Amino acid sequence: MAALQVVAPGLDGTALADLLWLASRMGEAGGEEPATAVPGHPDEPRREPRPVPRASAAEPGAEPQAPEHPLHERLAGAPARLRGDAVAVSGAGGLPDGLPLTRALRPWKRPWPRGRRDELDIEATVDGYARSGELVPVFRPAPERWFGLVLVVDRSPAMQVWREVIDDFTVVLDRLGAFRTLQVRDLSFGERGPELRDGLGRLTGPGQLCSPDGRLLVVVVSDCVAGGWRDPAVWRQLRAWSRSAPVALLNPLPVKLWRRTGLDLPTVRALPGPPGAHNTQLSFDQPLLPDAGPGAEDKGTWLPIPVLSMSPHSLSRWSRTLMRTAADGCGAVLVPPGGRPARRTDRHGGPVTAQSSARPVPPAAVRFLRTASPAAARLAGLCSPFDKLSIGLLHLIRQELVPEAGVADMAELLVSGLFPVSADDGGAVALRVPEEVRDQLLDKVTEHQIWRLNRALSRHLSSRPGGSGQLTAVVPGPAGGMEVPAELRSFAQASQRTLELLGLTATRRGQRKEARPRQGWTDMATAVTRSPKAGLRAHTTERERVVDNRPYFFLSYAHTPSSGPGGGDPDHWVSVFFRDLCDHIMALTDLPAGAAAGFMDREMRAGDGWPERLAENLATCRVFVPLLSPRYFTSEMCGREWYAFNERVVQARSSGALGPASPIVPALWARVEYAQLPDSVRHLQVASAEFGKRYMESGLYGLIKLNRLRDEYEETVLQLAQRIVRTAEEFPLPSGAPRAYERTPSAFKPRGEGPRRIHLTVAAPTRDTIPPGRDVRPYGDTAHDWNPYFTESTRPIAALAEELIRALDYRVTVSSLDDLDASGPADDEESTSRPGILLIDRWALTDSARRQKLHLLDARSRPWVSAIVPWNRVDVQCQGEEGRVLANDLESTLPLSLDRGRRAGSRTAVNGVPTLRSFVDVLPAVVAHATRQYLNHAAPHPPSGSYTPRPRLTGPALPPYRHPADTGPETGEEA
Questions:
Q1: Are 490 and 82 in contact (CB under 8 A)?
Q2: DSSP state of 486
Q3: Sign of the C-alpha dihedral, residues 889, 895, 897, 902?
Q4: How far apart are CA 440 and CA 436, in angstroms?
């Protein structure tokens, strides 16, 4: 390696790995391989690709990996047919936000106070018994669930792509437990208009959905694309239901596409009525309305129907409006008595049509990437290597590689026309990737992303081999039991152990004992070079990415309180600075028109769900720009924003997607002394001399307020914009999953609190002390090198935890269990002066000395020491019989610590944290709990010196009371 670095000093790690692989394959190349016919296409020869190595090579000393087998998706109507064995593998759910949606629908759990059944009124019974002395039970109507729910699902052809999403949403409604009954009706459009059918396919009358008591909730699920939604009949039916029951329309498409469908009706903000109100009881501010069409004599008869998107924010607004009379209301469309307003015409009396344009129309993929959201663009790029894929595989790619994508992002891709949609007789939906679209998208996808796609899908299948079987696949082999139509390119690899868990044994497949050369992912890797016009070049770099329209920066600032009535906007100059910074960034970059250069919370419109918007932008913005001032570090909101973005940085570094450079670019709003900086910030350079002396002394606020310093202000903002753009492009930070804002801790300690300290202890074996047969990859030379999430992270767990805890404004010290003196005193100053976190590897229990030390720590039972048990769900040895035995041993070794963790709400931490994401989520809660326990139980350390009691205010003392009979001559007092 040293010689290669001398010969070619410009090669990085990736280039060196490619060079070594190419050299190892040069000796095997004995000439070109013969062209063979593609299965299913005898007249179309293709060249068999050579095997491609795995993306991550085994470490020295590790056992050679067993051969893996490709999995090809089984698709009806696929042009190729493969001989092999069919298996059903675990897929992904169609609804990305199941838990947030459940929380958004909780207002519907409000009970109806006077139900059909009676219950014992204990208070009235006791009161009657006290009055009359006779025990006579008194009954009252028992509360019950308020509504029964009818879900009317549009079964038009365009709605077939939403079948998985609707099924998962129905499960969410069922598990919510808020409705008396849950019925599903199918809506179709026949020759006589809209038709309703029950679960058995029988026609039902629409009058069955009219509720005489107003306690039936009707939710219509449709994208409003079918032609029937432009006919007044279906809207008249919705009006009829709305007169006696709450009716809402749930649309899975993005809001920006609603006007292109049959949902092109006037929109208003529906204001609440009484709890559980039906639509005629909702009020709205009447806008300028078009002609209501035939059958309407006045505009006061328009009826509001709430329209919802498949997002937690939209469903929460609707639920709170109807059940909690929330004043902010929810979005709705107005439906006239005739069903739809009169069709607009131009001044010549003809229908309104789009004007033709002589400008050239760019290709479909280019148009899509210019206007699509970043998540939808990434999804499109990751689907491009396939010729055809099912909706189930698309959901799996979204779950594993684009977790930030929601239903709206999926809809943006599905309705764009980029991938034509087809369905077989059984209703299975597949997406076809046209050749010209593939060529255009593959230019935006790197080879690294293709490898990452394979690794992620293979890891998902190996971790859930016994899943629900939502994807049908084929394992090709000459001894296969059938020949089925399937996609030529494999989407994942499966080990022999995984195939056995799927019910496909080696004996059944007729395999030989010797390992066969793998040819699964080769198809995927060479698919990107298939087109001669476009594809991945031999020297593709990671700079070639999908078109990125994410905002360049997130501006975090402390809100200044108003000085009093009539004082004006205290944050006016912050808004001016934000606009100036955005103008410079738009001039320095190629962002398209309409794209946001930055994000600031003042840019959110009234009624937007600000916690969701903040979390979404913190998960997608490329650079974090904190506007530092003395008030900034006392703001809990700023601390949460800092922690959420920094957590995303830590995860990117752990996965190897980001180097040591920080995408946090501080801007000085007002002078801040070094002593005012929290410990979580001091590693950054908060002020740079390149911006000038006046900037370091007065900050941006001092420059923007004085007209004579206007030139220095403009120069400083331009330099800051250049630094933001340079940081975003040289050190690209991938998007992450939005973190719930209300559960995000602050990176700054409370005001007035001194330095916070915590101790981290790692209980793990080393590479030399692990038991025989244990996988060596998670271990190193010391316990500090233990990395249980080696498949997701390149960093040891101790270093990752230290950085995350330091981001919470703690001073962290780290040690290993091997350094603990078991014979030392139980109450030494080192162990009682701060809270502690114990990271435990179950495999440490195989060593008797470590096990004894852990038992000693548990016997001391310090409440301020909390345990976390990381493990890797992909590590097969942690899930087998050995893993279960070690879990039982841990229960017997640390019974007090584990029980205390479960009672404190840290059940996941002590039962086992299976993924890196789960560890990052659970660690702040464990740190906060350990700190609270330390403050509650630790011995106080008062300052030295004499003790002065607290002064207390005492009133005048009254003389003791004496009875008149006690006075007399004996006492010398007058009677």
A1: no
A2: B
A3: positive
A4: 6
Nearest to 552 by CA among 588, 576, 593: 588
> Which among 563, 566, 576, 564 has a CA at the least distance from the CA of 701?
576
Distances (CA, A) of 100 to 319, 321, 408, 578, 760: 13, 18, 15, 32, 33
Q: How many CB atoms lie within 10 A of CB 206?
A: 17
- The closest alpha carbon to 335, from 372, 302, 296, 294, belongs to 302
- Rounded CA gap, 675 and 406, in Å? 43
Residue 645 has pLDDT above 70, yes or no: yes
**In this structure, are residues 583 and 552 in contact, taking their beta carbons and an 8 Å threshold?**
no
- Of the candidates 63, 53, 49, the residue with the CA atom closest to the CA atom of residue 17: 53
* CA–centroid distance for 818 within its chain: 38
Helix, coil or strand: residue 763 = strand
φ/ψ (deg, to 5) at 810? -115, 155
What lies within 8 Å, CB to CB, of 760 at 6+ separation is 798, 801, 802, 805, 812, 813, 814, 815, 836, 837, 839
CB atoms within 10 A of CB 745: 19
pLDDT of residue 503: 66
Using alpha carbons, select from 577, 609, 578 the residue that is nearest to residue 596: 578
More confident site: 99 or 30: 99
Give tens-digit pLDDT for 568-605: 778 888 999 999 999 999 999 888 877 889 998 875 44
Q: Are strands 144-145 and 111-112 parallel, antiparallel or unpaired?
A: antiparallel
Rounded to 5 degrees, what are φ and ψ at 167?
A: -60, -45
- Taking the C-alpha atoms of residue 412 and residue 398, their distance in angstroms, rounded to an integer, is 13
CA 84 to centroid of chain Cα atoms: 37
**Residue of 931, 936, 929 lying closest to 906 (CA atoms):** 929
**Through-space distance between the first and last CA atoms of the chain, rounded to whole angstroms:** 114
The predicted-structure confidence for 107-116, as pLDDT tens digits, reads as follows 999 998 888 8
pTM, rounded to two decimals: 0.51
Say if strands 139-141 and 598-599 run parallel, antiparallel, or are unpaired.
unpaired
Tokens for 118, please give them. 């009676």
Q: Is the dihedral of CA 403, 405, 411, 413 positive or negative?
A: negative
Task: Please give the Cα distance from 470 to 94 (Å, whole number).
Answer: 11
> What's the 3-state SS for 207-239?
HHHCCCCCCEEEEEECCCCCHHHHCHHHHHHHH
- Is residue 328 within 8 Å of 317, Cβ to Cβ? yes
Pick the closest to residue 384 from 254, 542, 536, 520 (CA basis): 536
Residues 457-469 have pLDDT tens digits of 888 777 765 554 4
CB atoms within 10 A of CB 249: 24
- Tokens standing for 846? 């195989």
- The amino acid occupying position 622 is R
What stretches of 324-353 show up as alpha helix (H) in DSSP? none
Closest CA to 854 of 864, 863, 842: 842
Name the CA radius of gyration of the chain, rounded: 34
Query: E-strand spans in 508-558?
Result: 553-556
Residue 217 contacts residue 315 (beta carbons within 8 Å)? no
Q: Compute CA distances 649 → 383, 617, 626, 787, 975, whole Å.
A: 27, 14, 15, 18, 89
Burial degree of 793 (CB within 10 A; 0-12, 13-18, 19+): buried
Write the CB contacts of 674 (distance below 8 Å, at least 6 apart in sequence).
682
> Can you tell me the distance from the alpha carbon of 15 to that of 18, in angstroms, rounded to the nearest whole number?
5
Percent of the chain with pLDDT over 70: 77
Give how far Cα 54 sits from Cα of 18, 68, 396, 606, Å. Answer: 12, 10, 21, 51
Q: Return the H-helix or E-strand segment holding 377.
A: helix 374-383
d(CA 116, CA 28): 81
Token pair belonging to 424: 């077989």
Least confident of 338-352, 581-595, 837-851: 338-352
